[in-house]
Amino acid sequence: MRETVLKWGSQSTTWLYLLLAYPVIDYVLRKILPIPVVSSFWDEGLLLILLGFTFVAYFQGKRTMPKIKHLLIAFLVLGIALMVTDMANWDASVEGFRSVYQYIIAFLMGFYLLQSMEQLDKLMKGLALVGFLAGLVGVMQVVLGVQTPESWVQEGEAITTRAFSFVTSPNVLGSYMALIAPVAAGLFLKAPSRKEKIVWAVVTLTTLLALLLTGSRGAWFALAFSLFICCYIWNKRIAGYLVLAGIIGVVALFFVPESVPLVGTIKNRIFTLFTADYMSSSLEGGRLGRWGEAYDKMRVEPLFGVGLGHHGGAVASRHFGTIYSDSYFFKSLAEFGLIGIIMLIGLVAQMLRYSIKVIRSLTESPYFFALLGLFGGLFAVALHNLVENIFEVPFMALYFWLFGGFFCALFVDQTQTKRW
Known about the structure:
Blueprint: H1 2-9, H2 12-20, H3 22-32, H4 38-60, H5 68-84, H6 90-113, H7 117-143, H8 170-190, H9 194-214, H10 217-234, H11 236-254, H12 263-271, H13 276-284, H14 287-300, H15 314-320, H16 328-361, H17 368-384, H18 394-415
Helix pairs in contact: 2-4, 2-7, 3-4, 4-6, 5-6, 5-16, 6-18, 7-8, 7-9, 8-9, 8-10, 8-17, 10-11, 10-17, 13-14, 14-16, 16-17, 16-18, 17-18
């Protein structure tokens, strides 16, 4: 038994699986079995262990990071500079720095710890199964009529019950499901046996249903556009048919009575966006107004922003009482300024670019659809950050950068000596 435990503990994959179970472990330790100190710092401990494995892999020199390393270094230097130049608000600056860069470390972990395509396939399956659990809980909440907190229900809407599972909110669950559903769909298309196809079909349908029940419009739109991009990469003709089907679906949805279960709720959530009342409330104190405030903060300090942890997020809320920006990129625009936001968007874009190159090089591989689904999930999360602070949620940020690092590793291995 002792030898088995030591063997598992000496493998980085074991700790990566624990990282994939982050939302479950965190919920249990904080809500069900709270343990002093452990409940608050278990995730930092896990990241330190994985960072140790990462350093070992780095010094072994099996993989050299491509040009994205220059952006990473520049972005890190900018963050350190912003942190140390605001000594008057040192606590907020340090916490703001940690809230951004602590999770980008997962990119390095993914890049240096990937061992094989088979390992990545197993990690994707682990990611999908944990997501399935979260989605199933969300669906059961709606079935059982668990009331959604009022802060997540917009006044005048027909919906009063939104799935939120054991994660932060319906919007976070929506983003989580937008990540998992394409991954599960890719695993379904890749599955060699009927039994496996049934399993991944159930996971896909459950996570899609949970996504619909969150009522998260941003996640819906992000996944829809992401699916279009995936289809475009795979087959341009199918992408065209998807656009046509989407147009027909929206027109048909307009004529559906709001009394129709689920479909009527979706209609209400979508078409409420185009009402004068919504636009007015959004401009006064809602999402559009918050984006305007973030933009105004940038105008005061256009190049370097107002400082890390100073606007639009959890850290700024605790230290300065500012409200959330409802957009991670607008929050970053206010805190980093133009230079920082360009670097951040550049990092995300370069990572996705590597992903597309890997996928296009594996069109004849049995892993093609699985990787295409993973890309679709990551792309949906990136898009959702335009309208939500998704990267403020630890496990979502870790998933995004970790699997982005895996894609970067695949890109390097393909352009150097290895061929998957």
